[in-house]
């Protein structure tokens, strides 16, 4: 009805930006969002949120929202009905499958969508098409951390809860700009630092807020973290400070690990990483003296060719010092998107079925095959990143992309654009005509998180419900309904009336979700996986056993391989990451005027010494060139960066986006792009 709505509704939802998973009540009248009100019972955040959760919602009512399906018509799109668009998708995908086989299609689930939607995307890939070509954007961020944890402790998630970080004696923060990327976690740590005598060690390239607050700040050479971490471990062993009893009872392969540490002397560490022997001794001593240490890390570690190995080195160090299984200990890879954890947990990964059951695990696969009445290949498929290379050999012919801005957030945008152009068929579900959607054959308008129900998993493995705050805009639809419609046009016969029924199915086939149900997640209720049949959840992992058959953790020996570094021509190192006000490419935050006004566009941070040497001042226009691309961008002179290191926010304005410069180098195990290994040159554009 057109009757004016005047009643204020208060609906519980969860932030769709970072992995902290702040929950709150959203106060609305119709589509108008009046305010966001966190509650004391909000499990991850209490009464805190950051500026994005509070003011970053205007995109929901942006005039740029897609409200009708679009079908490509030459160089343009024309509006189409849902029936026409879905029929076209079904017939083209069927054709491609019949002609080239099921592995010719790649499916990408959204890390911002719900768990239930990620689950349906991988079910569409595996059950309806018969391929493991499915993934989500964890490939671009924390997949190496997950690899490191799988190698050593067994679960690819944070060891404990966010609240446990408050009781840590010592926080080791490596390659994480926590105050801007995970603001509410930073708030907890800052409070513990001030009130509890907690100590903080920060290793990073930039003097950001956490670095300024740290008790010890080290600035290793880019890409050399593994070296100083292993040197700290070796020094601890040399002093006899290892946690003997813990290791004996709970960890395998100690001797192999100690042997692998031999090359990592203080001299070697100083030479390669630039971290002084004094600092390494100081860090080792602080770890030795701390009753509990937790390690937090993020993209500064993972987005290197050695991302998996460096993550592994951090987990090794925690095992060596007995720092797992108690409150305030353990590894915390801080998750990027609101649901990058959940999209992985629910099976949108090329090598894993829902609940991290490997596709090569015969028993798990058979059980799911029986449940779904289908056959699933026993080998991993192409992931988000390797699928792009597979387009070259015509092995990938079509892609089905749900809410992923591949062009701007993948590495080497120019390359990705070229690859998408080569596809026979591309489907994109999104709220906006993203850079990726511009290459699509069919674009389907997706509902926003506040327009649907479902669940997210935050960085501490916490499953939380979102409730419908308002109706989907125009003719947009929730992704889970769209995916079901596509599957059913291909004969799947799915009949989910509500996301809770999808969750019910997951609880039957994925043991870590055995006791998860919507009833148990009512309101601000939440559960941290693994959740037993009876509904007991796990705020703290590894209290009695690690997730391996014998219950013991594993030291994982490592070697050092050097990163791509600067040379005479490409003489500057360009780092990139988040800033507080924006999220990733900015498709949502740039459409939220409050945030856009604060930080309207991108810039490059230049150190005062480099600015002096090159005659640069704030606002000057420079050209930055790598081996892979070139951009123009404005200078911001700041002592957050030093020497010949530059920094750019990863969110962009199109042509000046940092991913026009990044390369196709990747971590050999996790296939995560080495976004942070980026030698560039910089020239001033006179009169620019
Ligand atoms: Fe919380 Fe992260 Fe959202 Fe900020 S962006 S409100 S810290 S979930």
From TrEMBL:
Record keyword NAD present: no
Biological process annotations from GO: formate metabolic process; respiratory electron transport chain
Cofactor needs: Mo-bis(molybdopterin guanine dinucleotide); [4Fe-4S] cluster; [2Fe-2S] cluster
Cellular component, GO annotation: membrane
Domain 4Fe-4S Mo/W bis-MGD-type: from-to ranges: 8-64
Gene Ontology molecular-function annotations: 2 iron, 2 sulfur cluster binding; 4 iron, 4 sulfur cluster binding; formate dehydrogenase (NAD+) activity; metal ion binding; molybdopterin cofactor binding; NADH dehydrogenase activity
Iron recorded as keyword: yes
Highest taxon of the lineage: Archaea
UniProt entry keywords in alphabetical sequence: 2Fe-2S, 4Fe-4S, Iron, Iron-sulfur, Metal-binding, Molybdenum, Oxidoreductase, Repeat
Sequence similarity: In the C-terminal section; belongs to the prokaryotic molybdopterin-containing oxidoreductase family.
Protein name listed in UniProt: Formate dehydrogenase related protein
Lineage, opening ranks: Archaea, Methanobacteriati, Thermoplasmatota, Thermoplasmata, Thermoplasmatales
Region of the whole protein represented: 270 to 957 of 996
